[in-house]
Specification:
Layout lengths: L1 E5 L2 H18 L4 E4 L6 H12 L9 E3 L2 E3 L10 H13 L6 E2 L8 H15 L4 E4 L21 E4 L2 H6 L13 E4 L2 H6 L2 E6 L5 H9 L17 E6 L7
Parallel strand pairs: 1-10, 2-3, 2-6, 3-5, 6-9, 9-10
Antiparallel strand pairs: 4-8, 7-8
Helix pairs in contact: 1-2, 2-3
């Protein structure tokens, strides 16, 4: 595990972006998974800028989703796909054929899981993974109590996740109850993982993530077992470690 403590959110985001740029330049044909949400937005912005300056090229990458709200897809504001479309895929000109996302509106969510698992297996594993962490310690929608041996799956959302979801759906309140997500097994098998967190609100969960025993009640603790993990924090998020 390599830990980077930056002065602020901007510096933390830049550090994560630089790790990604270096990785993609070394392995252009990577299978990449970026979390949506608010924390990654700074990193995604730096990546778009770097691509536009010619410092990195994502044309040979394939992108997969980390998770999606069940009942939503890219047409819904606040969905994971819509967020990444707006802040990364479209600004970078990523072709749709190179993007494989969970469809939260599918009538067969198990088939969505199977398709994702087969794609990852065909590639070998995820090459590069960018993760945020929830206030309850979730990774993607791997909520407290999740089975660490699962691959892609559908899961009931924790009450904390449902409460926090309000910030993503400002124009239209969504009644989200379930999520579809990559499993912890996928995350641990990724060649390189980057965990980012910022702000005092994340200080306690990051203390647990890095200092407490591994437990599925705080899923982020499992990243202590990852063989190539980069943790990028700002000073506020790192205050208790």
């Amino acid at each position: 595990m390599k830990t980077y403590i930056a002065h602020d959110y901007k510096e933390m985001s830049l550090q994560a972006a630089e790790i990604i740029i270096q990785y993609i330049n070394q392995k252009p044909k990577s299978l990449v998974c970026f979390a949506a949400g608010t924390t990654p937005l700074g990193t995604l912005s730096f990546l778009v800028d770097a691509m536009q300056r010619g410092e990195v090229n994502f044309d040979q990458c394939r992108f997969i989703s980390l998770d999606e709200w069940v009942g939503l897809d890219e047409s819904d504001e606040g969905s994971c796909k819509q967020t990444l479309n707006e802040h990364f895929f479209k600004p970078c000109g990523i072709e749709e054929r190179n993007i494989h996302f969970f469809n939260g509106k599918s009538s067969n969510l198990e088939a969505e899981c199977k398709s994702m698992d087969e794609l990852i297996k065909a590639h070998g594993n995820i090459d590069l993974l960018l993760l945020g962490v929830g206030m309850n310690g979730h990774l993607g929608f791997n909520e407290p109590g999740v089975n660490f041996d699962l691959c892609s799956h559908v899961i009931d959302l924790d009450s904390t996740t449902k409460q926090v979801s309000v910030k993503y759906f400002q124009s239209k309140q969504q009644d989200v109850q379930k999520g579809i997500t990559l499993g912890i097994k996928h995350l641990l098998e990724a060649s390189t993982a980057i965990l980012i967190a910022d702000g005092a609100k994340k200080a306690e969960i990051m203390r647990k993530a890095l200092r407490d025993e591994v437990t599925n009640q705080v899923p982020v603790t499992v990243l202590q077992r990852h063989t190539n993990l980069h943790v990028c924090l700002d000073e506020a998020a790192a205050a208790l470690i």
